[in-house]
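Researcher: Good morning. I'm working through a list of sequences from a screen, and I'd like to move beyond sequence-only analysis. For each chain I'm collecting a predicted structure so we can compare shapes side by side. This is the next one on the list. No need for commentary yet; just the structure.
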Amino acid sequence: MRLHRNLIAILSLQLFTRGYSLQCFITPADPTGSSSRRSPVPTTFHACFPVVKFLAQHERIDLPLDFSRQPGAGYRVPAQWANGNCVVIIDVQSNDDVATTSFNEIAHEAGVVLLGCVVQPPHLGGSQWVGERQVMKVSVFGARRFAPGTSAPSLLSAKFPAMNISDSESSDTA
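Model: Good morning. Structure tokens for this chain:
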């Protein structure tokens, strides 16, 4: 609980003292279900915070890594994690981009999106640049849940059942 309060206090201060250019999603998914399943749906702080906390406690928290889609990268992207209906995805802009950053910075930027775009209406989430070169983004958003045995995207499967968080680190090559 102490980590929870400290993280919120730090992120709140950062959100209001740093010049962020958050890109909050403003158009929800079509309620009839006829739109793409990638359209965001409302989510909550309680669904998203465990994912941000998981990233903030990553075993490589302060280690600078090269994030890339290329084989042999320090960490292969896209990577995605989920809890409930909240999804966090990191990815670079193009196949040739390499972002050198840490999970500490990824967790921080995901927390900024959480406070700026999930806590605030319409609660759909958003995305934020990670790193100095601004070639990688972290996106935090709500996604439809799928019943077991249906065409659920792999990111919603539970690799960490205690927290119901999915981690796509199977593509990690380091």
